[in-house]
Every structure is written in C-alpha cells, then in structure tokens.
What we know:
By secondary structure, the protein is an alpha+beta fold.
Amino acid sequence: MFHVNRCFHSDRTNDPIIYLVQSLVVVFQGCKVYVKLATDAFTIAVRQEAKGLAIVIQNSLVFPLLPAILAVGQSNCSINLGSVLTAGAGGNSRPWISPAGDFAFGFQPLLHSPSTNQDHFLLAIWYNQIPEPTIVWSLNDHPVQEGSRIQITDEGQLILYNSQGQQVWMAETGNERIACGAMLDSGNFVLINGASIYIWESFRLPADTILPGQRLSKDGKLFSRRSDTDYADGKFQLRVQLDEDLVLYPVFLPTESVAKAYWVSGTNRPNADSELVFDEAGLIYIEDRSRNIFNVTERDLGSRQDFYYMARIDYDGALRHYNHPRGNSTADARRHSPAWSVVQTTPEDMCSAFLGELGSGACGYNSYCVNSNGRPNCLCPEGYSHVDPLDTSQGCKPNFQLPSCQQSGWESKAAFVEFTELNNTNWPFNDYELQTGPQRLPLSNGIQSASVSGIALIKVPRNNETTLCPKSKDQSTLVLVISVLLGSSVFFNFLLLISISMAIFFLYHKKMLNLRPASTLYGIRRYTYKELEEATGSFEQQLGRGSFGTVCKGVNPSNTMRYIAIKRLDMAVKEGENEFMTEVNAIG
Length: 588
C-alpha cells in the first residue's frame, strides 16, 4: 500500500508508459492506492472510498513503474508545526494555497460591524483563482477581530486564537497529535498524523457548500447562511436522514428543531447505507453500497477542464448547483458569463414549495413571495414594511396599530377601515371566510403567481389614521387621568403615613421624658397612690402645709415601726414635681 499525494489513471490497454504519463488525468489527492497483481490485460479501475478514490491496477508489468507514476505528485505535508496565519494585514496574513492554486485557507474579511465598530474576519476556505473569492467552507460561528490567528502548534494542535490571545476554537482530532497540514486541490483542508492518516478534514465539517469529491454520510447536514453576507447558520437545512431520505427542512433558531420538510428525495430504504455523493464529473446523487439510487443533478454542469463546480444551500432555502469558468478556460461561457452561474435549483420554485404549510416560509410572516428568475422575491402588502430592509426574508410588520379585537377598536368601524386587494395572491389557511377571503394576522407563506387564482383582501385602517377613532382617544385620555390620580393618591398617602409616624414618635418620646425622673432617678422605690393612702390613713394626720401641697404622717408599709412623712401635691404640675424633687434632694 502506498500513500501518495496525487494519483493518475488511464484506460488505454496498449499504450507505452511514456504515453501513459503524458496523458495522465488528475483524479484526486491524498488517497491510498491498493495494488492487485494479475495476468489479464492492463486496466486501471477507479472506485470511491471513504478517504478518497482507490485505484486497482491489474497488470504485473505496470507495478515496477508505479513508483515513477506516484513520484509525479508532491508531498502533502506543506504546512508544518508552528505555522501561523494572522487576520488582517501583516507578514503572516497570506493564506495557505493548494498546489494548483485553486483553493486557499485563511481569513476572509466580513462586512464592518456597526454594533462593535470593528472589522471581523472569518476562518475560511475559498476558490482562489476567480475575481471574487467564493467561500466554500468557514467556521461561521466564530468570527474574530483583526490580529486573531490560526496556528498549528508545536504540540500538534490546530487552534484559533482571538486578538487577545484567548482560544476560540480547536480542531477535534481525537487526542491524536498533528504532524502537518495540507490544503488540497480538491478544496479539502486536512490535518495529518505521523502515520500519514487524515485525522481531521474540512470535508467532514461542511457549512453550506459541498464540492466535487465530497460526501455527506448518514445524518450529514448543510446549513444555509442567515443572509447573503451573514455566514451564521440560517433557517434552512439539508440533511441525509437516517432513513436514507435526502431532505430540505425549515429550521427554528436557536433550538435547531425542524418543521415539515419542503422537499424530499423519496429514497427511504430500510437498512440501507446511503451517502450523498458529489463526484468528480459534477454529478450529485445518492449512493447505496456503491450503487446510484437517486440522481439529484439532472443537468450537465459542463466540462471539469473548463469549469469549477459547487453546490450550496442558499440563504433562501434552495439547493443550487453552480459552475464558474476556470481562469484558463477557452469555453464560450467564459466570455459571456465570467461569474458563477446557476445550473440547477432544487426545488425549482421556493415560493410554491411551502404551499399548504403553516409557518414563515421563504419570506417570513406578513409578506408574500414572487418567483423572480428562480429566486424568491419577498414583498410586503400595502400598509406593511420589512422587519429588516437588509434581509427581506425576515418578513414584514404592520405600519399601523394592530386590531384590538374589541368592539371599540378601529377595525370594527366602517369609517376607519378599508380593504386592499392583491390579485393572484394567497396566504393558505389564513382566510377568515373561504368565500370572501379576508385575511387574519400573522400572514404566513404568502405567494403571488399567475397560477394562483382569486384576490386576497387585507383589512387595514383607512389612510393609516387609527387615531381618528374617538373611542380610542377617549380611552387614552381616561388612562392618562387614572394614572395621574393614582400617582397623586400614592403620593399623599405616603406623606400622611410619614406625618402619623412622626407624631407618634414625638408623643412617645415626650412621655418617656416625663416618666424618667420619677422612675429612674435616685434609685427611690415607687409607691402606688393606694399604698400611700393606706400608709397615711387616707391622709388623715397632717404635719404641715407647703406651697404646692400638704405633708401627712404615715407608717412605712414595709416597716410599721417607722414613721414617714408623705407630701401630697395639690396639682400634678411640673412646678409641683420640681418642688418635690428639691425637697428630696434637701433631705438627702
């Protein structure tokens, strides 16, 4: 077994080897060649394998010359450990180019981001020899700023760092160490270990595009872009299902759950082992154990010598097959169309692909779709405008106050309502009444086509003057008045609560001040009036009289052998209390 960079084949049975070498046809790169010796006529058969193409050579006379044939190719390991690419201008910004120069791996600038006021870059693979580089693979969920870098580290890992030096992404190699990397002429960027085995391939991590030589196995997916210039995952998906069907789905973001398919290959086969194949001749088909069971491509993409190929699920949900004249092509197409041309679209009409299904469809809610040269043109009814003028597939929004579903709403008064008419237009399952056809919101999967019979009626406010409805104005005034009253009531209640709290505080504080001298000063025991009355015999025996009260003789309640003098204040006023305290101080 030989591991080679480039393999060739010829089906001529009697050519000298020099003619064989001169008439070589490039088949692929990075493949493994299996040699089988036999005595029958010289043949070279090419068949597809998991890692590329396998060539079976059946002639012992050819075997000695095989090393000379294999030596034509150059080594795969063109990108060594420590290699670095930097986003933006600089010495390390030049991309890694495939041997023939058709593809490049590196950073592509994205549109300026108004939200961050910074330029962003996308790690990507693109067609390199055409006027406008066309991205065929990218890390679309990891845009980075200028100064970010991708590096094959000395430890054998491919890592993307942002401009602050933080790791953003790393290629999953199953803990195997990278020996080198290579950008192949097939458009496949590969990482190779010390045994010359591919341990990571961009072909196995596709974005929205598939190239000749690439396969999608079971549960393989392509995601559409979010828009023509936004490479993040969009709302459509191509998938090779586990039941072998090739299916196009609308996707709900960010959960990535899918709605009902809008195109199905119908190749459901129990216990099959199917793959989607894009072969070197430009044909796309579903293969089950090396047998073609369904052709996706129905039209000729042109000669591989004259054209580049690719197939992409575009942001509008259609799978399109493209070709582009090569830089050295002499074909007439190059002179007339020096750009990517659509050869086939699946499904052919995206506008009608969603008929009968609820959901946002190709153009989003409240819009209608017109097929324009094979692409959906998304338009808004009168009184509506696009949610995002830069991405019309996001749908439309009403430019008026929505119906309130109340008897007082503008929609219930004929003076404020008019119906706009759209000929040959329909929103399936949005009709209020099947005979008259007024529509209810939100409008979904709208289509306008000559094949659609009937007129769609959409209720909108007359001249967009929903504020002319008196009831609505009165209600607005009522809401304002109630809001003011409620606000005033809350304010006054708050002031009242503060006033009451302060009054209670001062009264309590004053009471405590009044009680403090009698209860806490001098450590004197406090007697009740009844105790004093009993001790003096109801104040019967008077000893004398002062300016504020009478002094009476009494007996100490706790010791009847001791007599005491008790002064009875005539008026419980502050002066009397002070006089009493003065006398106590004098007594000591």
